[in-house]
Design a protein that fits this description.
single chain, 173 residues, alpha/beta, two-stranded parallel sheet
C-alpha cells in the first residue's frame, strides 16, 4: 500500500499533537511545521517508524525572516525522503531571532553534520550538541553571517566598479 499524506499527518498528530502543525501539500512535497524543541523527536519518529521510513536527509538549510515576530525570525528547513515509496517531506522549525538555536540532528543523520555547519556559518544558527560546530566556508575571524538579510550585498569600499554598467543608475549616458 502506498504511503499517503494523510497517513503521515495522522501519525504525527496522534504522536505529537499541537507540536506539529500547518500541514500543506505543494506539488509532490508534503510540508509542515514542528515546534523547535520537538525537532529531534519528530525526525527520529519519521526515520524509525516502520510505515513512514524517512531514512534519507536530502537537505537542511536556514532561512531568515527579519519581518516576522522575534520568536519566528529564523527557520531551519529539513527535507526528508522515503526511498521505498518515493515520498518527500519538508519540515520547518521556526526559532528565535535574538538567540537562534536548535538541537542538532547529526546524531540521527550523519550527513547533517556539514549542512548544520554551513547553516551556522551563513546564518549564525547554533545547533546544540553538534560535535564540531565551526565555520566551514567563511573565515573564522568573520563576525557576521552573510545570508542574514541585514548583511550588506556588496563591499561599499570597492572603487573598481562602475554602477552604470550594472544598471544601477538612472542617468542617461
Amino acid at each position: 500500500m502506498a504511503l499517503e499524506t494523510i497517513q503521515i499527518q495522522d501519525k504525527l498528530t496522534e504522536t505529537f499533537g499541537e507540536n506539529v502543525s500547518h500541514y500543506n501539500q505543494e506539488k509532490d512535497i508534503f510540508s509542515f511545521e514542528v515546534a523547535a524543541d520537538q525537532i529531534t523527536a519528530v525526525i527520529l519518529f519519521l526515520k524509525n517508524d516502520p510505515e513512514l521510513r524517512f531514512h534519507f536527509l536530502t537537505d537542511l538549510c536556514g532561512v531568515h525572516y527579519p519581518d516576522n515576530e522575534v520568536n519566528r525570525q529564523f527557520a531551519v528547513v529539513y527535507h526528508l525522503h522515503n526511498w521505498y515509496e518515493n515520498k518527500r517531506i519538508r519540515i520547518k522549525a521556526f526559532i528565535d531571532g535574538e538567540n537562534p538555536k536548535i538541537r542538532t540532528i547529526s546524531n540521527i543523520f550523519l550527513s547533517s553534520n556539514w549542512m548544520e555547519r554551513e547553516t551556522f556559518d551563513f546564518y549564525g544558527i547554533d545547533f546544540i550538541g553538534h560535535p564540531q560546530l565551526k565555520r566551514i566556508l567563511n573565515m573564522d575571524e568573520m563576525i557576521s553571517f552573510p545570508m542574514r538579510k541585514e548583511f550588506p550585498m556588496e563591499d561599499s569600499g570597492r572603487t573598481d566598479k562602475d554602477d552604470r554598467f550594472f544598471g544601477r543608475t538612472t542617468d542617461n549616458y
